Automatic annotation (TrEMBL), chain A:
Keyword NAD (UniProt): no
UniProt keyword terms in alphabetical order: ATP-binding, Nucleotide-binding, Transport
Lineage, top ranks: Bacteria, Pseudomonadati, Pseudomonadota, Alphaproteobacteria, Hyphomicrobiales
Bilayer-crossing regions: none
GO molecular function, one term: ATP binding
PROSITE patterns named in the record: ABC_TRANSPORTER_1, ABC_TRANSPORTER_2
Originating species: Methylobacterium ajmalii
Low complexity composition-biased segments: 213-227
CDD domains: ABC_NrtD_SsuB_transporters
Family the UniProt entry places it in: Belongs to the ABC transporter superfamily.
SMART domains per the UniProt record, alphabetical: AAA
Protein name: ABC transporter ATP-binding protein
Length: 260, 270
């Protein structure tokens, strides 16, 4: 279980990126963090990954406090961040240096198989498309078998078709070990396609505005009535979160939700 | 359609990569042959500017007598020693200032100031300190090699992508593992370019050092040709310098290129 306990982050320049974030994610749950840009989504993931220190509050994974990079936490950044001097297979194996060679090989081959890149194992990252590179990054994170996997808008730079394919690859990998997943996105459809719960954030400073459960069965169809209803609920909530505090709710959330 | 296809076909011979290189040879080879013909026909004397045949004959003579190899070996040994010391120092100091900001603040300003001194200006001091023999020459070459290598390595380390370093942090690499698995490969291409620049400067300074006083070496051959009024020997020594420099550069590239084959740009700039 991952517990975020009254987390706050104020950067050195005084920017209040996060204020009093509390969230409990049970093991194996997929949570989508949704919010406009600048509401602290990346900051939150960096705190959980141990890359930055919180100004206040704590993070606990299965009862253990997290203050730095933790073996149970993996992250996929917004950019693939592959090491250009390593082959695809060696990139996936990057975090497995401590394992015996044979096991490392087997794990890497299996993960590449799962993301559909088995035949690209020996290529350079520069020879892959953006979507393929992001798949390698996902495989690199999964192969280390983290308890918590953080994904920071991993598909935002890709076209809708590629994105749908990657959602399938991601769920296939998740099915195997069922890690807890925190997925940052600004795409409502993505949240509905993947998550068990959507958490809507509100900017300046970043706070949790609303939590929407998504109790839909998998595999999910984006056009099913359940998915569409869930998407509408999230959109309405997002729209509210983007309005200044205290402003009266307007009657037509859908129309104004289109701009962001 | 047919006409459009025919035009490139007719031009194709000129487009071959080999053909392009041959075009570059037209001017020097043409000039050399022209000069040769002019001297043979008696239109020019060729005393101060010897014709190619005489230069090649001199070069051949020097090679056959073994003299050329003595000089090549002397120059090569000096460059190797100077490049070895200079490059090693450049890499070490560059790595220190690149990774440790306090060290950079302490010594980088002094090094930048020293860099502003033309290296040849050190010669009198080096001769006083190290004598007129090998030590002063090798020191001069090492100083010439040091600065481009130092600047290249320090700049490469400063320019390492923070985002890739974070990948290492996420996987909890130790400082040593981070240096070995991320910093080192990331700075390698720029370091190789810096080493190449350093090697080129090493050859520049070996010529200078030998011109300033030596009893063997290609630079000595140059000076000897001047003092004896033998321009063919001077040109022969210049040709030998060019060939040696090019050869050493090719060896350096050949040895190091596999290390940077992952990088498109490195391949182009090497
Ligand atoms: N290193 C930093 N220093 C100062 N301010 C930062 C830094 N990183 C992010 N911020 C600020 O914190 C806020 C949240 O940023 P971020 O977490 O990147 O948002 P998001 O990922 O939701 O778009 C923004 O206002 C941003 O300008
Ligand atoms: Mg972000």
């Amino acid at each position: 279980m991952l517990i975020l306990d009254h987390l706050s982050k104020t950067y050195a320049d005084g920017t209040r990126a996060l204020a009093d974030i509390s969230l409990t994610v049970r093991a194996g749950e997929i949570v989508a963090l949704i919010g406009g840009s600048g509401c602290g989504k990346t900051t939150l993931l960096r705190l959980i990954a141990g890359l930055d220190r919180a100004s206040a509050g704590g993070i606990h994974l299965d009862g253990e406090g997290i203050a730095g990079p933790h073996p149970g936490v993996g992250i996929v950044f917004q950019e693939p961040r592959l090491l250009p001097w390593l082959s695809v297979a060696d990139n996936v194996a990057f975090g497995l240096a401590a394992l015996p060679r044979a096991e490392r090989r087997a794990r890497v081959a299996h993960a590449l198989e799962r993301v559909g890149l088995a035949e690209h194992a020996g290529r350079w990252p520069r020879d892959l498309s953006g979507g393929q590179q992001q798949r390698v990054a996902i495989a690199r994170a999964f192969v280390a078998a983290p308890k918590v996997l953080l994904l920071d808008e991993p598909f935002s730079a890709l076209d809708a078709l590629t994105r749908a394919g990657l959602h399938r690859h991601l769920l296939a990998l998740w099915e195997e070990s069922r890690p807890t997943v925190l997925l940052v996105t600004h795409d409502v459809a993505e949240a509905v396609a993947l998550a068990d719960r959507a958490v809507v954030l509100r900017p300046k400073p970043g706070r949790i505005d609303d939590t929407i459960p998504l109790p839909l069965s998998r595999p999910r169809q984006p056009s099913s009535p359940g998915s569409e209803a869930a998407a509408r609920t999230i959109l309405a909530s997002l729209d509210r979160s983007l309005r200044p505090e205290g402003a009266a709710d307007r009657a037509k959330p859908d129309a104004s939700a289109l701009w962001w | 359609m047919a006409a459009a296809a025919a035009v490139p076909a007719a031009r194709r011979p000129l487009r071959l990569p080999g053909g392009r290189m041959l075009v570059g040879l037209v001017l020097p080879v043409g000039l050399a042959l022209g000069w040769e013909a002019a001297v043979r026909a008696g239109w020019a004397q060729g005393r101060l500017v010897p014709p190619p045949s005489r230069v090649l004959a001199t070069l051949w003579g020097l090679a056959a007598s073994g003299e050329l190899w003595t000089h090549v070996l002397a120059s090569l040994t000096r460059v190797a020693a100077g490049f070895g010391f200079g490059a090693l120092a450049g890499i070490l100091v560059g790595a220190l200032t690149g990774t440790l900001p306090p060290v950079r603040r302490l010594i980088d300003p002094s090094l930048q100031a020293l860099r502003a001194i033309p290296s040849i200006a050190w010669v009198p001091l080096f001769i006083l300190w190290f004598g007129i023999f090998e030590a002063s020459k090798i020191t001069l070459i090492a100083v010439g090699v040091f600065f481009p290598v130092y600047l290249g390595v320090a700049g490469a380390i400063a320019g390492v992508d923070r985002k890739l370093v974070e990948v290492g942090r996420v996987f909890r690499l130790s400082r040593l593992a981070l240096a070995r698995r991320i910093l080192l490969p990331a700075v390698l291409p720029a370091t190789l370019v810096a080493l190449r620049t350093g090697l080129g400067l090493g050859f520049m300074f070996v010529a200078a050092a030998e011109l300033l006083g030596a009893s063997e070496g290609l630079g000595y051959l140059l000076l000897d040709g001047q003092q004896l009024g033998k321009p063919d020997q001077i040109v022969a020594a210049i040709l030998a310098f060019a060939a040696l420099g090019k050869l050493c550069d090719a060896v350096l590239v050949g040895l190091t290129q596999p290390l940077a084959r992952w990088q498109d740009t490195a391949r182009e700039s090497l």
